Amino acid sequence: MTQSKEPWKSPIWRSEPAFLYSRRPLARYVGRPAAEFLTIEPAAGVVLVVCAVVAMLWANSPWAASYEAVWGLDITFAFGDFALHHTLQDWINDGLMAIFFFVVGVEIKSEIVSGELSNPRNAVPPIAAAVGGMAAPALIYVALNAGTPGEGGWGIPMATDIAFAVGILALFGSRIPSAARIFLLTLAIVDDLGAIAVIAIFYTDDVSMAWLGAAGALIALAILLRVLNVWSGPVYLVIGVLLWVAMLESGVHATIAGVVMGLIISARPLLDPQIAHARAQEMAKDGLTAEETEQLVKFARDAVPPTERVQARNHRFSSFVVLPLFALANAGVALSSDLFATAMTSTVTLGIILGLVVGKLVGITAVTWIVVKLGWGRMPTGTTWPLLAAIAMVAGIGFTVALFITELAFRGGDAALLTDEGKIGVLCASFLAALIGALAVHLTAPKTPRTEDADEDERAVEDAANAGLGLAHCCSQRLEPRVRPDLWRDAVLAPQNLMSQPPATKMPEDTEARKFLDEHTPEDTVRRYPWFCAAWARLAKNALESGDDVAAYAYARTGYHRGLDQLRRSGWKGHGPIPWDHKPNRGFLKSLHQLSRAAAAIGESDEAARCAQFLRDSDPAAADALT
């Protein structure tokens, strides 16, 4: 449901609303627009760009000395005889960035357990593409810098910036197939994992075995607590802080502690969600006491995987505090004419630019082509090879992690100059990759998210969704569904009166559904299961369980619109309860339920919420039975 434009009028407020929901001008014209801005996908990338530009302007302004003074400020934390001395820039790079890598570790864990990386057939192409996208840029850089003082920077062009890359695709909205978004996200996550491994193995000097042993003991303790089913967040927080200190003192980069703790966090909920939901429904029947309300809060918390809760709590802090501070502290390069001229002829700068702009394109596209041709995986659904190549160009944006590695890569007398050349290379390459990649995506992505002969009721659903209406509001409009004659000419249409008992319809078995999922499009399978839309719900459920979220979404949408057509023919006006005691209507509600699940699986959270709300509005009892 859309939020009211006048939230201060809601009767929920006891006396007056919170500031953000008040009618004060500062809240209406600054607070709420800012809060809405933070929820859009490209927001983190926009903030990063602004901070990078500010850093560059600051470092090249008359106040350039203050830039060095601020980020070079020495900050000391002392605990008895033990003290940590670092500059403000180092505290950001070693301390706050550990939080960023912790969130990355949590995302990797979620993907491995229940995401794209959990299904080998879906995971192989983006994983292989990530490997190719790391190897090709590194090889290009080494080819230009082997035997030179800058050869240690080979790890710089390997990294893809998640926030920027995903933000670029988000600019094109529904023109980008959901499977293509997931491909890029998975690729970027694996890419970051590879960058983390490079940092740990190749950019670590002067290892202290005593501190490294202490770090190993702390990791073992955290794993033991997970095995013993200890779920207390503060316990792991204390272990994480101690692990960070041990890693920092060991010589291994301290941000590795964040990744390790992220991988240890459980990606499975403590409570069974269905049982917790049923228990909550039972408790709420006769009203709730204060103790029961507190128990419901625990149910809601513990029925969600900790990885999801951690991402929800830390994602914005990481994206809008940690990374902007990192950009401010590291993107400022004093660009004199001599330095810029030197950088433009430097093999370090040239290697980074070619590695990110050309190497990513060649490595990702070539390896994906090989994997698909060998049958080890399949192309993302709805993605053409030109679009895949455009996405590979977008993956050449290496801003955050590339700058991070630049600070670690060079040693010796020319380290400062090489670092500046490396930063210039990263900034130029990221700008070129973003510009060229966005143009390529614009040229290769589908011009419209729907075909011209889409059903009229489906177009109305999309129009209403774009207007911020819920599905229940949309379906209350007077729609006259048109059935495509080419698609349904061989289909047996449902009887006009759906209140009568329908004829027996064969439901697809799991293996049969899997076969159709692999070998046919939803439009092909419609000829075999033309009438009973519950079959579409079953296909969607099987596809979700097998990890093919995009196909599940297509199946569920087909079942939903086929069921909507049937209900219209029976005289249902788009509002009021849908009779749950007849099989065709159960099929429609099941399809709607699977559509909500599939939309959530592919990241369309708004549509998932609308579907769930429509299901509950149509029949609360059916919603309880299905969820």
UniProtKB/TrEMBL annotation:
Homology family: Belongs to the NhaA Na(+)/H(+) (TC 2.A.33) antiporter family.
Gene: nhaA
Protein name per the record: Na(+)/H(+) antiporter NhaA
Pfam families, per the entry: DUF3151, Na_H_antiport_1
Keywords in alphabetical order: Antiport, Cell membrane, Ion transport, Membrane, Sodium, Sodium transport, Transmembrane, Transmembrane helix, Transport
UniProt main location, coarse: membrane
Source species, domain of life: Bacteria
Entry-linked HAMAP family: NhaA
Organism whose genome encodes this protein: Glycomyces tritici
Reaction equations catalysed: Na(+)(in) + 2 H(+)(out) = Na(+)(out) + 2 H(+)(in)
Lineage: Bacteria, Bacillati, Actinomycetota, Actinomycetes, Glycomycetales
